[in-house]
Design a protein that fits this description.
By secondary structure, the chain is of the alpha+beta class. Helix content is 20%, strand content 9%. It has one helix spanning 2-24, and strands at 76-77, 84-85, 92-94, 101-103. A hairpin with a 6-residue loop joins strand 3 and strand 4 (101-103). It is elongated.
Length: 115
């Protein structure tokens, strides 16, 4: 009994493997098909094309989160004018409101730059 189940499983696996190349069509081994990222395949379509299925969502789309915050959530607070602004990746930058200059530094404690 165990031997016949193993034989059936083996035959089914071989039959399935024989069908796969005809289902896949042209090979698509990399992002956008090839090294040139052409996005073009040599596979030919059978014309005319026809619609095979349509996805109808159960619920309408919705946002994953609420509206944006009215003020900056994370950023640099200017010491002079108390304006909160996004800190650019540059090592030297200015407050957009009062033009106070800041120099960024890195510390293990995550300290803020000083004006």
């Amino acid at each position: 009994m165990k031997n016949s189940i193993g034989t059936i499983t083996t035959v089914a696996a071989i039959a399935l493997a024989a069908c796969i190349p005809s289902v896949l069509g042209d090979d698509w081994p990399a992002y956008r098909h090839d090294v040139r990222r052409s996005g073009v395949s040599s596979e030919k379509f059978a014309m005319p094309l026809s619609e095979q299925w349509v996805f109808t969502p159960t619920f309408p789309p919705s946002h994953a989160w609420g509206d944006p915050q009215p003020k900056a959530v994370q950023g640099q607070k200017c010491v002079r004018c108390e304006e909160v602004f996004a800190r650019p990746p540059a090592s030297v930058y200015q407050c957009p409101k009062c033009k106070a200059e800041y120099r960024a530094f890195r510390s293990g404690a995550g300290g803020d730059p000083e004006p």
